[in-house]
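Title: Request for sanity check on Flagellar basal-body rod protein FlgC prediction

Description:
We are preparing a figure and want to confirm that the structure record we downloaded matches what your pipeline produces today. Could someone re-run it with the sequence below and paste the raw structure tokens into this thread? We only need the token string, no images.
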Amino acid sequence: MDFLRSLSIAASGLKVQSGRMRIISENIANADSTANTAGGAPYQRKIPTFKSRFDDALGAQVVELGRIEKDKAPFETKYEPGHPAANAAGYVLTPNVNSLVEQMDLREAQRTYEANLGVITATRRMVARTLEILRA
């Protein structure tokens, strides 16, 4: 039973980190997305939130992906008078996505994902080893 508990807890971590990586990938993909209309708002960075809840079936805390919030950081401006999204003064608003920050977040999510995957791998080995011992 404890093997199943550890597998379920690690699986919830995998699910959350994969969702986090999806959001970060979306931010990186839209780092240069400007508005379609003149003076419009560009892509706004998304920030994943996490929440923990007590799972009655497992008898343990599990983590879940919470609301996806929009970053309230101001947009950058770039002077490009010929751009279709430029305002009357010739400035284009660019997304508030910093590629370096996104890469750091992505790396952290990847490491956490790998840690949860390591828990699952170790648990599977323990189950296999236990079965070998019981067969002998």
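Thanks, this matches our download. The longest strand covers residues 60-70.
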